Amino acid sequence: MRFTRRQTLGLAGSALAGTLIGSEPARAAAPGEIKAVAFDAFPVFDPRPIFALVETIAPQRGKELGNLWRTRQFEYTWLRTISNQYENFWKVTQDALLYAARALKIELTPQQIETIMGAYLDLKAWPEAREALGALREAGLRLGFVSNFTSNMLQSAIKNAELDGYFEQVLSTDAVRRFKPDASAYRMAMEGFGLEREEILFVPFAGWDAAGAKWFGYETFWVNRLGTPPEELGVVADATGANLSDLVRFLGAKG
């Protein structure tokens, strides 16, 4: 017996209901024929162990260091894109870590820096990710990444999370030497999948990425795992959920 996409996702959503963490995803404003889902890295991969490691290396100051590191990490991507001074995300991330440690007068040895950076190559998936991604694939949706991560970072995470074969497109912004939210970065999904923008759903982790995807013209489902408010940038995601189980339910409702 064959199921329609709506039926398949509806069944998967029921199976995943136990993993939901609270919020009911909003319905899309208008129906559309979504054929592919393009993910940022962090809706799929859990970054929390990176920052737990920072806390063990810098006891009682790990949160402070992690917060400044994250802030500078993305500020550097934006500054380098605007100024046409590209360095890849691995280099930008390490530079931001070095700055944050110096700014906070936290001594990090070369070995500690290597250990912290290495955590980016040992990421695992969020608990519900495999089942949710499987449901999307079974429903006939094409899956891919459009991420600031380097190709090596993405491939390492896919291997560690045992998600080989789930993603048709694994697209690093290295290919265009521009970071999101530059339009050329988002356009990679259209070119990779060979689809029109209205046929692609973009799934970000950060509010600024949700705004960038909407500015580009993608329908956007924001996986807001941190429960943060939307950015005040004049656009909002078409729908928001707490995890990938909510994404499955959202697409099941649209199918």
For the record, what CATH class of the largest domain applies? Alpha Beta
Structural class: alpha/beta
The portion of residues assigned to helices is: 40-55%
Name given to the CATH architecture of the largest domain: 3-Layer(aba) Sandwich
Q: How many strands in all?
A: 8
What is the CATH superfamily classification of the largest domain?
HAD superfamily/HAD-like
Strand content: 5-15%
Average pLDDT figure = 89
Please, how many domains? 2
- The strand order across the widest sheet is 5-4-1-6-7-8
Amino- and carboxy-terminal Cα gap: 18 Å
Q: Compute the number of helices.
A: 10
Low-confidence stretches: 10-31
Q: What Rg, in angstroms, do the CA atoms define?
A: 18 Å
Give the overall shape, derived from the CA principal axes.
globular
- Write the H/E string, N to C: HEEHHHHEHEHEHEHEEH
Main sheet: strands, sense, barrel = 6 strands, parallel
CATH topology of the largest domain: Rossmann fold
